[in-house]
């Protein structure tokens, strides 16, 4: 009996080990594909940024188009934004049966909202715009780094990425309780994208923020970014949800996002940031940056950066006058400080009063330019602008330096190795090692860091000798059963206590024995989903794979060794996956250890063609470029109408033709756009856009 028990135990351990190995391989596939998609997004954005930097507008219309191409929110001044998003002009019909809001908000409003969203009801656009208006007003008064104390509440709960998964937020509130004066929350960014209920999550969080402004704190994540939202579904979902007022809501949300604080400090000992840090992270600089200038962190420095650099050099006394390339002396853009004219005699009170007003106005104008505040936008002083104006004697940073500070804390990831290097996997931010963590903690007298940004199988993970804690709150992120969500609670002792969960209604009703079988079924389901996504990725690179395989097939036999197959696949996809381990799931084993790669690729094509009746070579291109095409379409569609107007297409094509040195007249562009407009309705929808791309590829 004892030997039998040991044998059963060995079998069971082997079985569990195999399940864990399958789970880890599946995880690697999902994560590699996700990060490759983020790389594509940044590459695409860099391409458009390059076009913009090297495009010379020929008219005021071109300049206006270029200035608004990426971040339409910047084209609205304060008063214009208020007028455009005026909630009072939106009427609530008598037939509306959803929740109602009145300001100032009360806890009952939050409870009613939660119940309404559980019943799949929507909040009317008037109330959404009103809520965004009040939220923006509140956020503008907050510092860049929020400060939380455990002295005033029993504990502080920190939640990670939610990504539009409202069921996870409901589960957190069910397990941990709603925000209240005795229960503080920090939500660490990435509230939107990917999930289907991003707007509902924003509404709930903003409502609690206004009800409990001292107990609820929101950090900005890398997905609170207009350019990222264009690719990952939030923009499209919002417009589809509200055709009439969706554009106004989106415009307001873009502006609200740029006012979100960048970090939170608990008891001056625990720093909470969305992504991570770098070897140049400077909390003092982060405190003083005008965060609202960066509507999209992906944008990097603007074209006016060169002018800003001239100003900084002059402030530092390095240069007073710049000469242009032609040798002509240019006027100084900003003197060190305005020198007032000599004061008139006190005897002439009117003249003296006029001199005082002029001098004060010059000083204010100099301060505004130094702090990079637009003089065309008359708005109240915010916390960050006050900090900037009161610290004029301190160091002056370029916009590029400020941008990198924010990019690093929103996009970076920890690594086990020492040092700090560029995050080539995501395409943005950096990888920081335990030595970088130690230096930052020591410099600012911190105990540890809490960050999010990375999906973890158990919902949380420690690294860097337990000095960096990753918390991720979106369960079932890749697929049902792929991961748990978690949140962490900190009391006055700052010892973290974790709560894990999985928002899956089916699993809650199962017995323990049933759950074992359910877990195995889930792993199989998640595994199949991962390999399906990987096969799509392989199929999308068929042409490149054939070229890579032929490098190992010198005699053109159509066969290569399986070991060479793994090397060739990695050289094309660059996903960093253990291809030899994954090979049995992707390639049929052969007796002689050789692979007929053409028949294998044909099998991949057949699998994809069974889903879409399109010629194989065209389908490959569509699979490889669909996300980029959708993003390009949304960039061109500046008003988020779901349609590209002839004017929008005309301006964009001028940008492309300028970059590619293609001579094309206005009549030629008009003929082109009319040929793409298949149904002749005067606009181009995404299907027409995709069909034109397909026809061009087919003709090639």
TrEMBL record:
Listed EC numbers: 3.1.3.16
A family per Pfam: PPP5
Cofactor(s) required, per the database record: Mn(2+)
Reaction catalysed by this enzyme: O-phospho-L-seryl-[protein] + H2O = L-seryl-[protein] + phosphate; O-phospho-L-threonyl-[protein] + H2O = L-threonyl-[protein] + phosphate
Region (Disordered): 319-340
GO molecular function, one term: iron ion binding
UniProt enzyme class: hydrolase
Superkingdom, natural source: Eukaryota
One biological process term in Gene Ontology: detection of stimulus involved in sensory perception
SMART domains registered for this protein in UniProt: EFh (SM00054), PP2Ac (SM00156)
The keyword Hydrolase appears for this protein: yes
Key word Hydrolase present: yes
Annotated function: May play a role in phototransduction. May dephosphorylate photoactivated rhodopsin. May function as a calcium sensing regulator of ionic currents, energy production or synaptic transmission.
Family classification: Belongs to the PPP phosphatase family.
PANTHER family: SERINE/THREONINE-PROTEIN PHOSPHATASE 5-RELATED, SERINE_THREONINE-PROTEIN PHOSPHATASE WITH EF-HANDS 2
Protein known as: Serine/threonine-protein phosphatase
Species the sequence originates in: Grus americana
